[in-house]
Specification:
346 residues, alpha+beta, Aminopeptidase, 2 domains, ten-stranded mixed beta sheet, five-stranded antiparallel beta sheet, 10 helices, 30% strand, elongated
């Protein structure tokens, strides 16, 4: 029997039948035997990306105690997925999902309006009945929605969720892109003058990762979320969703971007430049290349990623300004906390 437990409490048995039933919805804990069903369902969900697949989530399964849920209706049809794991820093808290940028309640259209409120009540009751005290929900930013799908935000309001964090990202609407600022255009001209060359391919990732690690260590005293081996492994799993673009100066990697692609958005997951790369404005050339790539891929948005530290409280203003000067605007990523004890749906 397979189970996920946490310090002898908060145990979820993944071989149980429907552990909870709220009105017409049934809650089933996810187990590995349902991985193919999970990923097949995601194909039709308008707010999911490859980050939500079990293939992606499984690469760091040893880091988290998975407590994901599957939602079925009264006819036993799968109508929703909820990727989640126990918070590594708090065994009484569930996060959706600590291993990915955003989580969300994923559905194909069945969980809208009142049904979404019912689904959140079912999730809340399920986790409360298994000894958890709170649930943190990481909203999928609206630019990733293939169709409007913000019913979860209304449901969060109805069940008394509190927004505890808000990060600011910068994105470009590729169908209506403003002109870059003069400073960015001058940067592009400078990179071209110095003869910066653009190259793509996984063969450049080793040199770029060394640059990225040095860059992050120098600026914020941290390492990339993924190790070199992890990002290479993920690329082997998702070669159509992960791309590496670097800038070379005299055969040396001086800047680079790791791109994560989805149905509607091309996202800069990692950005890095050496001090020399900064001096010759290599990133200006790289971003213009990536923006053209996004348009060729028929993406609607290019997402530069967030510019925050300290749970959203600190904004790296100069970095955000740099991104916005390419023609971008603000997109928020919201984080909500749902108390699991003593709450009632209105």
């Amino acid at each position: 029997m397979q189970s996920y437990s946490n310090q002898s409490h908060n145990t979820i048995n993944t071989d149980e039948e429907y552990v909870e039933q709220n009105n017409s919805l049934k809650i089933l804990p996810y187990s590995e035997k349902n991985s193919a069903i999970w990923d097949e369902f995601l194909v039709s969900t308008p707010m999911a990306t490859f980050l939500h697949t079990r293939r992606y989530l499984s690469y760091h399964a040893d880091r988290f105690q998975d407590v994901s849920l599957m939602i079925k209706d009264e006819k036993n049809r799968l109508v929703g997925l909820f990727p989640a794991a126990i918070d590594p820093s708090n065994s009484k808290r569930v996060v959706s999902h600590p291993g990915i940028t955003y989580g969300g309640l994923l559905h194909t259209g069945n969980l809208r309006g009142a049904n979404m409120i019912e689904a959140f009540k079912a999730l809340r009751d399920y986790y409360a009945n298994h000894g958890f005290e709170s649930l943190r929900y990481k909203v999928v930013p609206n630019i990733y929605h293939q169709v409007p799908a913000a019913d979860d935000l209304y449901a969060l309001f109805r069940i008394g969720a509190v927004r505890y964090r808000c990060d600011l990202s910068c994105a470009i609407d590729l169908l209506n892109r403003p002109i870059s600022t003069k400073r960015r255009r001058r940067g592009l001209e400078k990179a071209l003058k110095y003869g910066v060359q653009i190259k793509e391919g996984v063969e450049f990732v080793k040199d770029f990762w060394k640059l990225l690690e040095d860059n992050l260590a120098r600026k914020i005293g941290a390492l990339p979320v993924h190790s070199l081996n992890e990002i290479i492994y993920l690329y082997s799993m998702f070669p159509n969703n992960i791309e590496f673009v670097v800038g070379l100066y005299e055969h040396e990697v001086v800047a680079g971007i790791v791109l994560f692609s989805g149905p509607k958005v091309l996202r800069a997951q990692y950005i890095g430049s050496s001090q020399l790369g900064n001096q010759i404005c290599a990133l200006d050339l790289l971003f213009e290349h990536c923006l053209k790539k996004a348009q060729l891929q028929s993406a609607h948005y290019f997402d530069f990623g967030t510019s925050n530290q300290n749970e959203g409280q600190d904004l790296k203003a100069s970095l955000y300004q740099f991104k916005s000067e390419f023609g971008g605007g603000g997109v928020v990523q919201e984080f909500y906390e749902i108390p699991l004890i003593g709450q009632e749906v209105i």
